[in-house]
């Protein structure tokens, strides 16, 4: 009898092992059908058309989470108006290096998008990118002084040529009539203005890239498919467990390279991969809401992105702005976002996401980070407990004549900020994006939030260098990268001729405004 039971157990074990054998071989698995996976897949397929790519998305739509137009600010982040990229140092000077870097990275994105449009792999550019002026707006003596110093520094930088500054009420009223109407002329105010700012519909952009990928030989895009687990194969490749959410059946895919671009869901999958590089990472979720204007007459009176200063302790994604959007060819006007807290890591996630992400490896970094970020905790508590009257009061600081009846509260996207181990503090909270990859380059995950989507191309270039070093060093890939991104390996901010060439070419292809940069400009001026 014992022998029979032993034979049965062995048989069951063998069947179980067979069930987990790869049912399909592929070169690349991309987890999530958002802007990051769409960008990486498009770049890889362009560089090596022979590679097989499988894309898995747990929802029934492409770009339905963080990349969706209603789930993010849609700002083409160039640091024209975002004051958090230019902090004032204790000595009173303005730190502007990050602003230059963000601008450079967005120029890289525009080059890639222009290439894809020219190659017929993206639809008409007006479907995903349009000119909307970028404005920084502040009030109060201290803030006005800060903005003037910021302008003095940035206006001397090559890529910020054309920035305007004013404290004049009538000038500001022309730039942003809704913001100035009904405002006291005695109030100390100032603003900077950049006419070449952009609004980007990352949902439309993502769908365009995925649609093009679907047409390529060797590319498979499967919706309603959730990646549940990742396990190393003996040869170093990855066995990816994918569940068909309609049939609830599992299938097993063997992939040479896996990219986890699942937004807030990336952290949990990174943990399941068990790569040493992913240990100790934690995540802090921040939710958001918008006030959306439902009065089209008001919508038509505003055509800019007006950014202010964030509140004390506020995360970058919570910088208030009165924001013109172009969504599916129609203008919209939003204000916010109002930050909040939810234990979900995805908008359509589970309230258990935060709890499930806590491990013995990241427990201390997360606890110590919480203790070191009391201002953020207080800020989120204030935001969560806001009334409708509180939200309207915040809106009136940017639109004095706003009326509650013209606005509706809508849920925005969910973001997960990075928590990392730190020798000094135990853990630190990072407001940015970070690529975490296995030492052998066989797996990479993208963690974090802003400025994410705007700098997606530069982020993916970094990933390619880390995970495909031999291929990137090859002559074929070098030529391919320069074809997609003419400034590849160079700094536009240090080369006026190249900057003029790239910006003018991209702007013509994408239908955008641009400035001819000063030929007498010299680096370091």
TrEMBL record:
Cite the entry's keywords alphabetically: FAD, Flavoprotein, Oxidoreductase, Tricarboxylic acid cycle
Question: Which cofactor is recorded for it?
Answer: FAD
Known Pfam families for this protein? Mqo
Reactions the enzyme catalyzes: (S)-malate + a quinone = a quinol + oxaloacetate
- Keyword Nucleotide-binding listed: no
E.C. numbers: 1.1.5.4
What is the protein name given in its UniProt record? Probable malate:quinone oxidoreductase
Can you name the source organism?
Pedobacter riviphilus
The upper taxonomy is: Bacteria, Pseudomonadati, Bacteroidota, Sphingobacteriia, Sphingobacteriales
Gene that encodes it? mqo
């Amino acid at each position: 009898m014992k022998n029979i039971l032993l034979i049965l157990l062995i048989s069951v074990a063998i069947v179980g092992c067979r069930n987990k054998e790869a049912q399909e071989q592929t070169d690349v698995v991309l987890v999530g059908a958002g802007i990051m996976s769409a960008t990486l897949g498009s770049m890889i397929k362009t560089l090596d058309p022979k590679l097989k790519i499988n894309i898995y998305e747990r929802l029934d739509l492409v770009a339905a989470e963080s990349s969706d137009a209603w789930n993010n600010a849609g700002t083409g982040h160039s640091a024209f108006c975002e004051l958090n990229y230019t902090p004032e140092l204790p000595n009173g000077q303005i730190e502007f290096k990050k602003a230059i870097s963000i601008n450079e990275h967005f120029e890289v994105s525009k080059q890639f998008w222009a290439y894809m449009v020219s190659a017929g792999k993206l639809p008409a550019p007006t479907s995903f990118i349009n000119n909307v002026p970028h404005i920084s707006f502040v009030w109060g003596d201290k803030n006005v002084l800060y903005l003037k110093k910021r302008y003095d520094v940035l206006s001397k930088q090559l890529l910020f040529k054309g920035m305007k500054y004013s404290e004049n009420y009538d000038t500001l009223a022309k730039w942003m009539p809704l913001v100035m109407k009904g405002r006291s002329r005695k109030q100390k105010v100032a603003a900077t203005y950049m006419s070449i700012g952009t609004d980007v519909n990352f949902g439309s952009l993502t769908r365009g890239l995925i649609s093009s990928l679907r047409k390529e030989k060797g590319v498979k895009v499967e919706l309603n498919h959730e990646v549940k687990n990742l396990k190393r194969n003996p040869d170093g490749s990855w066995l990816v467990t994918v569940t068909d959410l309609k049939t609830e059946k599992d299938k097993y895919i063997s992939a040479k390279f896996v990219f986890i671009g699942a937004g807030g869901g990336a952290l949990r999958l990174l943990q399941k991969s068990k790569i040493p590089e992913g240990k100790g990472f934690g995540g802090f979720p921040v939710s958001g809401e918008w006030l959306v204007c439902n009065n089209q007459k008001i919508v038509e009176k505003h055509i800019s992105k007006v950014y202010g200063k964030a509140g004390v302790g506020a995360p970058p994604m919570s910088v208030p702005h009165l924001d013109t959007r172009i969504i599916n060819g129609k203008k919209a006007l939003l204000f916010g976002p109002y930050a909040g807290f939810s234990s979900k890591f995805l908008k359509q996630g589970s309230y258990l996401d935060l709890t499930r992400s806590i491990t013995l490896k990241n427990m201390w970094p997360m606890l110590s980070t919480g203790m070191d970020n009391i201002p953020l905790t207080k800020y989120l508590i204030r935001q969560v407990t806001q009334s409708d009257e509180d939200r309207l009061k915040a809106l009136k600081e940017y639109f004095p004549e706003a009326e509650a009846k013209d606005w509706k509260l809508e849920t925005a996207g969910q973001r997960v900020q990075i928590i990392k181990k730190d020798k000094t503090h135990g853990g630190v909270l990072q407001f940015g994006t970070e690529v975490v990859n296995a030492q052998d380059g066989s797996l990479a995950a993208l963690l974090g939030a802003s400025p994410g989507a705007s700098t997606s191309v530069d982020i993916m270039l970094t990933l390619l260098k880390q995970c495909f070093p031999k291929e990137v060093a090859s002559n074929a890939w070098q030529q391919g990268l320069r074809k997609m991104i003419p400034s590849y390996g160079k700094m536009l901010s240090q080369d006026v001729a190249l900057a003029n060439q790239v910006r003018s070419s991209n702007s013509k292809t994408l239908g955008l405004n641009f400035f001819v940069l000063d030929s007498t400009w010299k680096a370091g001026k």
